[in-house]
Amino acid sequence: EDARESVTVNAELVALRKRLVDEWNAWRTRCIKDMVESRGLKGKAHSNGDANTAKEEIE
Amino acid sequence: MKPILLQGHERSLTQIKFNTDGDLLFSCSKDNIINVWYSHNGERLGTYEGHNGTVWTLDVDSESRFMVSGAADNTLMLWDVQSGKCLYVWEFPTAVKRVAFNQADNQIVCITEQRMGFQCAIRVFDIDRSGDGTNQSKEPRYMFNPIGSKATVCDFTYTPDVIFTGHESGKVALFNVKTGEEIANNERAHGDTVNDLQMSKDYTYCITSSKDKSARIHDTKSLMIIKTFTTETPLNSAALDPKRPYVLLGGGQDAMSVTTTSLRQGKFETRFWHKIFEEEVGRVKGHFGPINTIAVHPAGTGYASGGEDGFVRMHHFDESYFKTDLYGTGNIIIED
């Protein structure tokens, strides 16, 4: 019975740890996506900014 | 894992930092000097002398060309890493408590102390990298006084002009340095003073340590608390291991606050916690007093700790550190 109990406990622990790692990985993926997107936006904003300055100079 | 004892400071350490390559370790102390050491053998390469008060903080750029330091003598100094020469000095009404370079190495952010009628201030300076480095502007690019609790630690984030701050009250916040506007905050991130802040390699998350005995991992965009590590001693420093899923925590009650229950063994150990499972995995003894500052080698091959005892201990991890699979997660991939 003890043996069976420890097996259940272990199985629960393994499942918990698996869940924690899955949650962590999901969050990391979101983080990196956010960062890449914000870099992309920044790039766009910059090129727009440059275009505007160029226009101003022409005027 | 036999540490190398770096002896070169006469008083307690305040901050230690590796350069990007990890071949050099910089240390600053209450003895007014900054030392630089070879991390592989602990040999002292040089000393930066010039401050007339406790050097509270330092940072080195990614090329290991410039180093910047802030001290109790109310100055912020820019140094040439190689020659040890001071290139520029900025003066303030109060002490400089924290300084950090941005990822592009062209700006620094610093916190000056709230004292003698002066408010806590955060300033961003442009760093002119052309020429010999002596041509810096006296005036900050941006300056503001954070509202509410004073800031104790800060660093840049991956978003331009946004900094992450930790405060005396335990608050963490994001500020726009251009406007001084508090973009977001978490008033209850910690229950007491935040005393260290270290960014992950990609700046998407960071770890803070606090007098409230805990360390926390925060998402630097949402300020969401991702992980909490609760110990039984006030913490002074927390660092992220870039290679293994661990965080390193250091602290300890200082002698003055120790009551009659007194010196329990193990108070001054570096604690290793599992970053994801929030469980303690091991401790490393060594210091005779509280651990004030911890830094992990950027390649994850070792770590250094600086203590109230005036020593820096440089540890190179054994092979077993990389092989041990405590949780049987060897086949599970942990993203970083």
UniProtKB/TrEMBL annotation, chain B:
Coiled-coil ranges per the record?
none
Q: Does the keyword Flavoprotein apply?
A: no
Q: Could you tell me which InterPro entries the record lists for this protein?
A: eIF3i, WD40/YVTN_repeat-like_dom_sf, WD40_repeat_CS, WD40_repeat_dom_sf, WD40_rpt
Which PROSITE patterns does this entry report, sorted A to Z? WD_REPEATS_1, WD_REPEATS_2, WD_REPEATS_REGION
- For this UniProt record, give its keywords in alphabetical order, as a comma-separated list: Cytoplasm, Initiation factor, Protein biosynthesis, Repeat, WD repeat
One of this protein's GO BP terms?
formation of cytoplasmic translation initiation complex
Q: Name one GO molecular function term.
A: translation initiation factor activity
Spell out the subcellular localization from the entry.
Answer: Cytoplasm
Q: Where are the WD repeats?
A: 6-47, 48-89
Q: Name one GO cellular component term.
A: eukaryotic 43S preinitiation complex
The UniProt entry lists the main location of this chain as: cytoplasm
Protein's UniProt keywords contain Membrane: no
Stretches that traverse the bilayer: none
As for what it does, the entry says: Component of the eukaryotic translation initiation factor 3 (eIF-3) complex, which is involved in protein synthesis of a specialized repertoire of mRNAs and, together with other initiation factors, stimulates binding of mRNA and methionyl-tRNAi to the 40S ribosome. The eIF-3 complex specifically targets and initiates translation of a subset of mRNAs involved in cell proliferation.
Listed under subunit, the entry gives:
Component of the eukaryotic translation initiation factor 3 (eIF-3) complex.
Family in the record: Belongs to the eIF-3 subunit I family. Belongs to the WD repeat STRAP family.
Query: What name goes with this protein?
Result: Eukaryotic translation initiation factor 3 subunit I
Provide the species name.
Answer: Cylindrobasidium torrendii FP15055 ss-10
Q: What is the lineage of its organism?
A: Eukaryota, Fungi, Dikarya, Basidiomycota, Agaricomycotina
